[in-house]
Design a protein that fits this description.
alpha/beta, two-stranded antiparallel ribbon, 7 strands
Length: about 190
C-alpha cells in the first residue's frame, strides 16, 4: 500500500485538504496528516483523523507511545509528501532549511523528489519576489509545484493564488508515487 504524508498549513484552502485526504484514502492509500498550528485555526485535526483513521500530527514534542522518532519514520515511509495548501511561510521555511515544527522537520527528512507543494495565498504574496525566489530554489532541488489557479480569493481580489483543483493535485500525487518507484496505488 502506498503512503502519503499530507501537510496542511494555515490557509483558508485547508478545508480542501480534507477532500484530498478522502480521495486518497478511497484509492487505498494510507494517509498520515501533519498540520501546522496555523492550519488548526482553519480545520480541526479530528476531521483528518476521521477520514484517514490515523493519528494527526500537530506537535513535534507530543507525548506519544511510539518507540521511533516520528518525523523521521513518516519521512522514510512516505512515497509522497504533499503540502496542500502551502503558504508563503512554509515555502520560505523549507527554502531556508528551517525545521522548527512537525511539518518542516518531516520535509527536511524527506527526499525532495518525493515532495509536492501546492501554493495557496493572496496574489501579491504569491507574486512577491521572495516567494518566487523560494519556489525557484525548491524547484532546483527537485520539488514539484502544482501551480495555483486564478480565481476570486478570500480577500475579495481576483488573481493567481487559489489552490489548484483537487483533481489536478490528486493526479500529481499518483504520478509522483509512480515516479518514485511505488507502482502499488491501491
Amino acid at each position: 500500500m502506498s503512503e502519503v504524508v499530507l501537510g496542511v498549513t494555515g490557509s483558508i484552502a485547508a478545508y480542501k485538504a480534507a477532500e484530498i485526504a478522502n480521495i486518497l484514502v478511497k484509492a487505498k492509500i494510507n494517509v498520515n496528516v501533519v498540520m501546522t498550528s496555523a492550519a488548526e485555526k482553519f480545520i480541526a485535526p479530528l476531521t483528518f483523523q476521521t477520514l484517514t483513521k490515523n493519528q494527526v500530527y500537530t506537535d513535534m514534542f507530543e507525548d506519544t507511545a511510539y518507540g521511533d522518532v516520528r518525523h523521521i519514520t513518516l519521512a522514510q515511509n512516505a512515497d509522497c509528501l504533499l503540502i496542500a495548501p502551502a503558504t508563503a511561510n512554509i515555502i520560505g521555511k523549507i527554502a531556508s532549511g528551517i525545521a522548527d515544527d512537525m511539518l518542516s522537520t518531516v520535509v527536511m527528512a524527506t527526499e525532495s523528489k518525493k515532495i509536492i507543494i501546492c501554493p495557496a495565498m493572496n496574489t501579491a504574496m504569491y507574486e512577491n519576489a521572495a516567494t518566487q525566489s523560494n519556489i525557484e530554489k525548491l524547484r532546483g532541488r527537485g520539488f514539484l509545484f502544482v501551480e495555483p489557479r486564478e480565481s476570486r480569493l478570500a480577500c475579495g481580489a481576483f488573481g493567481k493564488g487559489a489552490l489548484a483543483d483537487v483533481d489536478v493535485i490528486v493526479s500529481a500525487v499518483y504520478n509522483r508515487i509512480q515516479d518514485t518507484g511505488n507502482k502499488d496505488l491501491g
